[in-house]
Amino acid sequence: MLEVNSLTKTYDTFDFGPVDLTVEDEVLSILGPSGSGKTTLLSLIAGIVDTDGGTISLNGDRLNGCPLQERRTGLVFQDGALFPHMTARENIGYAATDRDRITKFASLLEITDVLDRRPPTLSGGEQQRVALARTLAADPDLLLLDEPLASLDAPIRRRLRRELHALFTSLEIPVIYVTHDQRTATALGDRTAIVRDGAIEQVGSPMAVINRPATRFVARFTGNENLFDATVVEQREDTTLLRVGNIRLQATTAAAAGTTVTLCIHPSRIQVHTPNGGDDCHDENTASGTIDRWLTEGNEYRVEIDLDDAPITLTTTIRPPSFDQLPLEAGSRVRVTIPPAAIHLLR
Amino acid sequence: MLPTKSRTDVASRRFDWLTVAFLLGAVLLCYYLVPLLALVLSQPPGVVIQRLTRPTVVSAATTSLTASITSAAIASVFGLPLAYWLARTDGRVKTVVTAVVVLPLVLPPIVSGMVLLTVVGPNTFIGGLAAANGLQLTRSVAGIVLAQTFVASPFVVITAKAAFESVDRSLEYASQSLGKSRLTTFRRVTLPLAWPGILAGITLAFARAIGEFGATIMLAYYPRTMPVQIWVSFTTLGLENAFPVAVILVGIAVATLIVLNVLGTNPLE
């Protein structure tokens, strides 16, 4: 288990921490924008950078002041950091002279065919596999990965994401995976930590972070574009009645009547219907509007809808089958339904 | 309506600035090459070879080679650690130290000789102490080595520094995170990757040392190095008698360029 307590580091233009973090034998994704302190956190834990304050412990042993080579911390860099003058086999063998161990990890990461090639002749995906095999061959007690998939093409990244999740889970050691890509973070991490300005804003399961963001920053960074002020009309037994303009919404999160709260609705959780559709939905969470514009984003459509009864524009994402069934063009009339469970309240 | 002029016609009449640039540069290239060819071709090869075997020439060549190899070795022993330190250090101290390293390169060699004389001359503390222990720091091979090391060692430091800097630090971190010590990391990762650049620096330092004249003549007129022998032959017997040694030095210069290009890391390019 990795325990980080009150970790701080001060640079000329950037203050990191204090950061507290506990990582069991699990995968923790560190998600944040560029310059938020993700790599600093990794560098401090790895021992590349000296800490100014706080403690780092791994399985009960304090790592502060311990040289990098004695920390038993596996590091995988964004570019792999393979030794270019050695073959893939020599790179893996650099950490493990045992031939069986080289074969085992080469086989595990499906790089047996490229073992006698040098890094510059390998593809990006192959280089990352070799880098991971080399790190795992050293039998680390902690695995730190700094955006190893960032420079790879999308199809390879998707494939490696699936493979790595299974691999990391089987390691039974703390794994910290740094990324600025929300999809990678949620796909790989058992938990996700959102970092901003050198501090951790929220730690939780990927779904909790996406659906129950703690702050506006976390909400925006995880794709929750729909943030609106609402007035709490009534607090009922299981639900809270809210009002945005003339639209009444039920939410499952409790809030005191009369207060103003910020609504947070993830675009993927909003349902879009034809003007007469959505009859089976609760009236209070349904509204009519006009499509302002839409654009293709990856394999889904992003649609912006101006609501009739409130001065807000709702952003939704729609998958192709649903999109094809709807007359979705700029100016088209639609009805939207927001399930009560999809409404999260920020205070 | 069909166009009357094709784009190719227009392009072919366009003023070719690149050719003009080359023609202007060619004047300078001729200025480099013609004197060298004149030197090599001015004497029949048989005469040059005959003069090369003269005792004064052989002695000067031996002294120069011995002193230059020693200077290059000393520059490497002390220059490579300094180069590594500079490559892995940040901040103002690095800027100051780099400036100090570059100083002998921009200092006129004759001034370098004067500077050295104030420290290791016969009437100085260090010079006197060395002489008392049987080591002459002037008018000796030691004096030549001191002069050559002063002017040539910056080539090792600056070139090796660039070579070390070209080795990504993440490779060193990766090595250390795999449980290897700093020394093992340096030996197995940093040094092999920086080696062509380091060798280029040592080669340049050797070439600079063997051609050193200004500082050497201040510290050690005797024993004569090849540049000093050229000067003596020219002033006493005329230009023709200086040719054989000059041809050797031209040969060493050409060999240096070949070595640098074979290494693929010519820092002068």
From TrEMBL, chain A:
Q: Which GO terms describe its molecular function?
A: ABC-type tungstate transporter activity; ATP binding; ATP hydrolysis activity
The residue ranges of the ABC transporter domain are 1-222
- What EC number(s) is this enzyme filed under? 7.3.2.6
Its membrane topology, per UniProt?
Answer: Peripheral membrane protein
Quote the PANTHER family the UniProt record gives.
Answer: SPERMIDINE/PUTRESCINE IMPORT ATP-BINDING PROTEIN POTA, SPERMIDINE_PUTRESCINE IMPORT ATP-BINDING PROTEIN POTA
- Give the InterPro entries listed for this entry: AAA+_ATPase (IPR003593), ABC_SmlMolc_Importer (IPR050093), ABC_transporter-like_ATP-bd (IPR003439), ABC_transporter-like_CS (IPR017871), Mo/tungstate-bd_C_term_dom (IPR008995), P-loop_NTPase (IPR027417), Transp-assoc_OB_typ2 (IPR013611)
Cellular localization per UniProt: Cell membrane
**Reaction catalysed by this enzyme:** tungstate(in) + ATP + H2O = tungstate(out) + ADP + phosphate + H(+)
Name of the protein in its database record:
Molybdate/tungstate import ATP-binding protein WtpC
Q: Which GO terms describe its cellular component?
A: ATP-binding cassette (ABC) transporter complex
Enzyme class at the top of the EC tree: translocase
Alphabetically sorted, this entry's keywords are:
ATP-binding, Molybdenum, Nucleotide-binding, Transport
Q: Its family?
A: Belongs to the ABC transporter superfamily. Sulfate/tungstate importer (TC 3.A.1.6) family.
The organism's lineage?
A: Archaea, Methanobacteriati, Methanobacteriota, Stenosarchaea group, Halobacteria
* The protein's assembly and partners: The complex is composed of two ATP-binding proteins (WtpC), two transmembrane proteins (WtpB) and a solute-binding protein (WtpA).
From TrEMBL, chain B:
Q: Which residues form the signal peptide?
A: none
Give the family from UniProt.
Belongs to the binding-protein-dependent transport system permease family.
All copies of the ABC transmembrane type-1 domain together span: 61-264
Output the InterPro entries linked to this UniProt entry: MetI-like, MetI-like_sf
Where is it localised? Cell membrane
Ranges that cross the membrane? 20-41, 61-84, 96-120, 140-160, 193-222, 242-263
- What keyword terms does UniProt attach to this protein? Cell membrane, Membrane, Molybdenum, Transmembrane, Transmembrane helix, Transport
Quote the cellular component terms of the Gene Ontology held in the record: plasma membrane
Query: Where does this chain mainly localize?
Result: membrane
Q: How does it sit in the membrane?
A: Multi-pass membrane protein
| Name of this protein | Molybdate/tungstate transport system permease protein
Protein's GO biological process: transmembrane transport
